[in-house]
């Protein structure tokens, strides 16, 4: 087995924690960094450590944030009565870029997946219930992914919201089924958001 | 412009130094690391810093190595009279995995590219000439990429070697033109290596 030494092998292996990076691309990345872009590599190591140290989750909406309460949750110009529920931080970015939504968000950081041991607790549902019970939110907008798991999660949350007399909507049809929200083009996403339906 | 704060934005930006990583994949990698694999991210930052600190170039063959002289150059069981010249460290790995070659290597770390200011000095040609002048090498095997630049580089080196009465061969036809050596399947590469031709 041809090898270039432990530090190189370990870096190739470590790069494989990145999504979409197999053995061949990890090797290519390693040679690129060591052979052609050492300053880029040093900068990457530094920014990675910095982000891991500084970035936590907003205590209110659970999005990735460097502050205890994120800038959106702290923005008093945003409506308090609308709450949009998404799976991932990237979905918030996508909706903010595509729509004029000016309400609140709640980031589940995933979807219900009993086989993987991901239940309501892991998605912050108890916090969400506490939020409903403050009786400020009057509309919940379900924007989970249009996958089987995303829809099951939306259904679960809709039952809880409806039992508290909260109006529940979901994004309008138009989003391709089986896709992931962050890959939907912004025209479609904007349209689906504006035309959201009662759930 | 929707953003999640400076540390996250900087990490997304820093990841783009990796080959093949555009804005969308950099964002996806960032969210994956911060949301789902922090220990993988910490390990990556550590291995990256370690490799950048420990890995230099072999003083003899210029391959990436943690030692001043790499394990292959230090291996006294390998033939001293054959010298295989490649563009990149990954080409050495590919040849070692595909063939039974037991001679020496010299890694140019690129090819002649006058427009980018990459001349003979940057490719270590003076060291290569010094090596030729030791009169130990009797066969130079040119294994640069079958691209225009790789072939021009091979031609340049062949002239130098021939003026010193060194036998010059190149890998046999069979390697697809315009491709990169490291992506050639190992059967083709092995065949081309065994059937190398006089240059
Ligand atoms: Zn927040
Ligand atoms: Zn060496």
Automatic annotation (TrEMBL), chains A, B:
<feature type="zinc finger region" description="C4-type">
    <location>
        <begin position="58"/>
        <end position="73"/>
    </location>
</feature>
<comment type="function">
    <text>May play a role in DNA repair. It seems to be involved in an RecBC-independent recombinational process of DNA repair. It may act with RecF and RecO.</text>
</comment>
<protein>
    <recommendedName>
        <fullName>Recombination protein RecR</fullName>
    </recommendedName>
</protein>
<keyword id="KW-0862">Zinc</keyword>
<keyword id="KW-0227">DNA damage</keyword>
<dbReference type="InterPro" id="IPR015967">
    <property type="entry name" value="Rcmb_RecR_Znf"/>
</dbReference>
<dbReference type="InterPro" id="IPR006171">
    <property type="entry name" value="TOPRIM_dom"/>
</dbReference>
<keyword id="KW-0233">DNA recombination</keyword>
<dbReference type="Pfam" id="PF13662">
    <property type="entry name" value="Toprim_4"/>
</dbReference>
<keyword id="KW-0234">DNA repair</keyword>
<dbReference type="GO" id="GO:0006281">
    <property type="term" value="P:DNA repair"/>
</dbReference>
<dbReference type="GO" id="GO:0008270">
    <property type="term" value="F:zinc ion binding"/>
</dbReference>
<dbReference type="GO" id="GO:0003677">
    <property type="term" value="F:DNA binding"/>
</dbReference>
<keyword id="KW-0863">Zinc-finger</keyword>
<dbReference type="Pfam" id="PF21175">
    <property type="entry name" value="RecR_C"/>
</dbReference>
<dbReference type="Pfam" id="PF02132">
    <property type="entry name" value="RecR_ZnF"/>
</dbReference>
<comment type="similarity">
    <text>Belongs to the RecR family.</text>
</comment>
<dbReference type="InterPro" id="IPR000093">
    <property type="entry name" value="DNA_Rcmb_RecR"/>
</dbReference>
<dbReference type="InterPro" id="IPR034137">
    <property type="entry name" value="TOPRIM_RecR"/>
</dbReference>
<dbReference type="GO" id="GO:0006310">
    <property type="term" value="P:DNA recombination"/>
</dbReference>
<dbReference type="Pfam" id="PF21176">
    <property type="entry name" value="RecR_HhH"/>
</dbReference>
<dbReference type="InterPro" id="IPR023627">
    <property type="entry name" value="Rcmb_RecR"/>
</dbReference>
<keyword id="KW-0479">Metal-binding</keyword>
């Amino acid at each position: 087995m041809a090898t270039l030494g432990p530090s190189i092998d370990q870096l190739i292996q470590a790069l494989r924690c990145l999504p979409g990076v197999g053995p061949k691309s990890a090797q290519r990345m390693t040679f690129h960094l060591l052979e052609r872009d050492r300053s880029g590599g040093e900068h990457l190591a530094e920014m990675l450590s910095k982000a891991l140290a500084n970035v936590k989750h907003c205590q209110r909406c659970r999005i990735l944030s460097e502050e205890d309460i994120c800038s959106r949750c702290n923005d008093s110009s945003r409506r308090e009565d609308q709450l949009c529920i998404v799976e991932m931080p990237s979905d918030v970015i996508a909706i903010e870029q595509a729509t004029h939504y000016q309400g609140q968000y709640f980031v589940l950081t995933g979807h219900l997946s009993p086989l993987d041991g991901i239940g309501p607790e892991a998605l912050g549902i108890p916090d969400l219930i506490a939020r409903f019970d403050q009786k400020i939110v009057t509309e919940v907008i379900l924007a989970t992914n249009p996958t089987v798991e995303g829809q099951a999660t939306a259904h679960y949350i809709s039952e809880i919201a409806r039992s508290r007399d909260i109006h529940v909507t979901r994004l309008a049809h138009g989003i391709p089924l089986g896709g992931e929200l962050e890959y939907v083009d912004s025209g479609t996403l904007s349209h689906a958001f504006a035309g959201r339906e009662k759930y």
